[in-house]
């Protein structure tokens, strides 16, 4: 069953098709408009073009990884303040995530630790939706 | 003890030893050579001097003999003597005496008396009238031998104290020559000249040369050199430079005298002198059994050598010192780079793979340094590869279970349609096993981090009890569910410790969750944090199921689970305690335990008070 449309757009940047499907379906159910990107390059382009309300961002991706995309996006006037939640399966404090605070994501979570319901709640909190 | 010295000291001491040894050996040989040289030279000098003296002495005696022979051929003397002897009257002597005095004795200053003696030994004429008629010389050896001589020959006596001619113990010797009848050529008597030994002494002492006009006498430059004569009876017959009144009194028993007297052998060598000190001396043996000795004090000869010895010693010290300094610098040139490399090796060993050393030379040390840098570079590369692997592994391993987790969640949440109870129960099984797999993956990633050594120690001042409290809060649901009793015992005024809070958290999480897991309902967990003997002591104990004795030795090994533990919690990974042990070790501490089946377990972790210093590496354990 679907909720009524929320008038919010969510950009999901994730290279794994299963996870992308799970996230897209779940958030679509909640009433979000979903934009999908399979790698950082696509994600950057779509973010700048479509100005989503929030971005769910994976880190390890081909062509351009999540950190690089985020850094580039932050250089954009709009991109500087776009809310981003990083979804990753890297361990907390993995070296790759060294620079993460500099890119000011709103949040950072490890996929295997989080129920999808909790992710939904987090997104809604961040957007101020009840 | 030698093994404990550092290279710098060893090399410097080595140089010093070589220098001292070499200089020692060389000095020894040089000194001995110099001494030998000097010895040979002084021997030559002395022999030369003695030889020269002998020459002068023999000349002197020859002159004396010549004089006597000369007198013996005087016509008037022969005629007058024949007259006195044949007429057996000494009334005619006075003329002869006068002749002797005026015409003969005056010719030679050294002659102080002349006698003419008949064949019976009676004095028939003398430069001193009162001597006439005396028969004292009848058995005189010189007289007796002169009697047997031919015309033109003379004989010299030994040196003796003379009381003739009014002398009082004047050292003298006499030269006699036979008198022949002018016509019959028969012996009629002996003419004897009495000579003082003054000129002899002048010759031997070097005064003669000065008197004759020489400006210097080298003999007088030497303080202890002297030449003297010793007769067959081993008595000194010429003057001593040092002793008054030695003539005809002092006995000389030195080796050269013995050799001359017994074997007529010349001698040069070092022997005890007649004054007690050792002398260097050369002897010339005279045909009549006399020994001519030229001697000089041994220490006068060798005093220059003593000075040489001192100079050599000072030189040796200076050179040894210089060589040691050289050795020290050379050694520094070797040991300093080595020390530096050792330091860098230590830092690399502690995990800082960015350390490099400056390659300053092309020699062996330089090559060692280059190899070092290459090795460090490779280690850095390996480190990077390892950490990349771990990152990649965690990402790749976790992705499928994440998908399973979310899809099962959504199915259970009936997002894809209604589920009946059976379907839901099966989905729960899937979810549970997936959770188990995720837990196993997490622990395995931690283990691989521990084994590859790629986690960093982020050391900061930490409050141990605070970390403990946080962990207990996380376990609140389990504690509440099983109605467990938690007894806390924290020391008051505990200082902060420099350690990694993440590592500490892992320790507490594992130990406390184990305690909570392996006690029955309403069981008790004790948590004590104390200070003890330079360490922090953490005690986590329970009154639960304990560990069977025969399985206790394996409790820290990877993937091991005791049988009773598997029964209580089939989903455990068996990795928790292995990780705790590794982590505690990284924090510089130690872990041990006590346990009894069905009574409970107590785990003790000690951490050093001084804490841990920071280490570079890849990042933390979850």
TrEMBL record, chain A:
Domain Response regulatory: 9-127
Keyword field: Phosphoprotein, Two-component regulatory system
Cytoplasm in keyword set: no
Gene3D superfamilies: 3.40.50.2300
4-aspartylphosphate: modified positions: 58
CDD domains (UniProt xref): REC_OmpR (cd17574)
Pfam family, one: Response_reg
SUPFAM superfamilies from the UniProt entry: CheY-like (SSF52172)
Highest taxon above the source species: Bacteria
Any one of the GO BP annotations: phosphorelay signal transduction system
Stored InterPro entries: Bact_response_regulator, CheY-like_superfamily, Sig_transdc_resp-reg_receiver
PANTHER family membership: PROTEIN PILG (PTHR44591:SF14), STRESS RESPONSE REGULATOR PROTEIN 1 (PTHR44591)
Protein name: Response regulatory domain-containing protein
Biological source species: Candidatus Niyogibacteria bacterium RIFCSPLOWO2_12_FULL_41_13
From TrEMBL, chain B:
Alphabetized Pfam families for the sequence: HAMP (PF00672), HATPase_c (PF02518), HisKA (PF00512)
Entry EC no(s): 2.7.13.3
Kinase recorded as keyword: yes
Any single GO CC term annotated in Swiss-Prot or TrEMBL for this entry: membrane
Lipid biosynthesis recorded as keyword: no
Domain HAMP: residue ranges: 332-384
Domain of life: Bacteria
Domain spans labelled Histidine kinase: 392-611
CDD domains to which the protein is assigned, alphabetical: HAMP (cd06225), HATPase (cd00075), HisKA (cd00082), PDC1_HK_sensor (cd18773)
Gene3D superfamilies, alphabetized: 1.10.287.130, 6.10.340.10, Histidine kinase-like ATPase, C-terminal domain, PAS domain
Predominant place of localization: membrane
Biological processes per GO annotation: osmosensory signaling via phosphorelay pathway
Transmembrane segments: 12-31, 312-331
UniProt keyword annotations, A-Z: ATP-binding, Kinase, Membrane, Nucleotide-binding, Phosphoprotein, Transferase, Transmembrane, Transmembrane helix, Two-component regulatory system
Record-linked InterPro entries: BphY/WalK/GraS-like (IPR050351), HAMP_dom (IPR003660), HATPase_C_sf (IPR036890), HATPase_dom (IPR003594), His_kinase_dom (IPR005467), HisK_dim/P_dom (IPR003661), HisK_dim/P_sf (IPR036097), Sig_transdc_His_kin-like_C (IPR004358)
GO terms for MF: phosphorelay response regulator activity; phosphorelay sensor kinase activity; protein kinase activator activity
Protein localization: Membrane
Reaction(s) catalysed (UniProt annotation): ATP + protein L-histidine = ADP + protein N-phospho-L-histidine
PANTHER family: SENSOR HISTIDINE KINASE GLRK, TWO-COMPONENT HISTIDINE KINASE
Listed name of the protein: histidine kinase
Organism: Candidatus Niyogibacteria bacterium RIFCSPLOWO2_12_FULL_41_13
């Amino acid at each position: 069953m679907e909720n009524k449309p929320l008038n919010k757009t969510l950009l999901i940047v994730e290279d794994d098709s299963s996870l992308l499907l799970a996230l897209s379906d779940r958030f679509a159910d909640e009433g979000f408009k979903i934009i999908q990107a399979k790698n950082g390059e696509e994600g950057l382009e779509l973010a700048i073009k479509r100005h989503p309300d929030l971005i769910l961002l994976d880190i390890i991706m081909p062509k351009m990884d999540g950190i690089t995309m985020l850094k580039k996006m932050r250089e954009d006037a709009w991109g500087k303040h776009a809310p981003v939640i990083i979804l990753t399966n890297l361990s907390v404090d993995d070296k790759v995530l060294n620079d993460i605070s500099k890119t000011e994501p709103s949040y950072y979570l490890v996929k295997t630790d989080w129920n999808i319901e909790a992710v939904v709640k987090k997104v809604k909190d961040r957007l101020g939706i009840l | 003890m030698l093994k404990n010295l550092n290279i710098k000291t060893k090399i410097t001491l080595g140089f010093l030893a070589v220098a001292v040894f070499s200089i020692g050996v060389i000095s020894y040989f040089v000194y001995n050579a110099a001494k030998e040289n000097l010895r040979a030279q002084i021997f030559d000098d002395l022999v030369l001097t003695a030889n020269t003296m002998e020459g002068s002495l023999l000349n002197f005696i020859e002159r004396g003999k010549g004089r006597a022979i000369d007198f013996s051929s005087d016509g008037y003397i022969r005629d007058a003597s024949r007259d006195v002897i044949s007429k057996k009257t000494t009334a005619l002597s006075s003329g002869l005496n006068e002749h002797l005095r005026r015409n003969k004795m005056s010719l030679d200053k050294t002659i102080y008396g002349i006698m003419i003696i008949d064949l019976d030994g009676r004095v028939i004429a003398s430069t001193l009238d009162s001597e006439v008629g005396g028969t004292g010389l009848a058995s005189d050896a010189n007289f007796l031998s002169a009697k047997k001589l031919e015309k033109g020959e003379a004989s010299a006596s030994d040196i003796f104290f003379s009381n003739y001619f009014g002398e009082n113990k004047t050292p003298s010797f006499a030269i006699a020559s036979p008198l022949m009848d002018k016509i019959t050529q028969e012996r009629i008597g002996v003419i004897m000249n009495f000579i003082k030994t003054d000129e002899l002494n002048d010759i031997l002492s070097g005064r003669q040369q000065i008197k004759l006009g020489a400006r210097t006498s080298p003999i007088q430059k030497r303080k202890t050199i002297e030449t003297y004569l010793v007769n067959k009876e081993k008595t000194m017959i010429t003057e001593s430079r040092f002793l008054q009144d030695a003539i005809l009194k002092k006995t000389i028993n030195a080796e050269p005298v013995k050799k001359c007297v017994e074997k007529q052998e010349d001698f040069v060598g070092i022997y005890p002198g007649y004054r007690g000190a050792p002398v260097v001396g050369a002897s010339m043996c005279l045909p009549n059994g006399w020994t001519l000795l030229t001697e000089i004090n041994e220490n006068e000869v060798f005093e220059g050598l003593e000075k040489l010895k001192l100079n050599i010693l000072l030189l040796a010290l200076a050179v040894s010192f210089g060589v040691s300094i050289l050795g020290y610098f050379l050694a520094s040139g070797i040991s300093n780079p080595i020390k530096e490399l050792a330091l860098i090796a230590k830092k690399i060993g502690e995990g800082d793979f960015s350390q490099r050393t400056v390659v300053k030379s092309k020699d062996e040390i330089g090559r060692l340094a280059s190899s070092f840098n290459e090795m460090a570079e490779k280690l850095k590369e390996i480190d990077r590869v390892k950490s990349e692997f771990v990152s990649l592994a965690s990402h790749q391993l976790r992705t499928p279970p994440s998908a399973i987790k979310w899809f099962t969640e959504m199915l259970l949440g009936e997002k894809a349609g209604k589920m009946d109870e059976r379907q839901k129960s099966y989905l729960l099984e899937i979810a549970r096993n997936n959770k188990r797999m995720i837990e196993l993956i997490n622990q395995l990633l931690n283990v691989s981090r521990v084994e590859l050594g790629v986690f960093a120690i982020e050391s900061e001042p930490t409050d141990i009890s605070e970390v403990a409290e946080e962990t207990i809060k996380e376990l609140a649901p389990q504690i509440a569910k099983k109605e467990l009793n938690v007894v806390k015992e924290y020391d008051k005024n505990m200082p902060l410790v420099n350690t990694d809070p993440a590592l500490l958290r892992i320790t507490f999480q594992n130990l406390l969750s184990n305690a909570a897991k392996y006690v029955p309902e309403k069981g008790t967990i004790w948590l004590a944090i104390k200070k003890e003997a330079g360490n922090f002591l953490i005690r986590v104990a329970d009154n639960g199921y304990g560990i069977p004795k025969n399985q206790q030795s394996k409790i820290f090994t990877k993937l091991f689970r005791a049988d009773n533990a598997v029964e209580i919690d089939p989903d455990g990974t068996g990795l928790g305690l292995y990780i705790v042990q590794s982590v505690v070790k990284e924090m510089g501490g130690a872990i041990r335990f006590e346990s009894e089946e069905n009574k409970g377990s107590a785990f003790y972790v000690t951490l050093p008070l001084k804490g841990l210093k920071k280490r570079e590496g890849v990042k933390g354990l979850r």
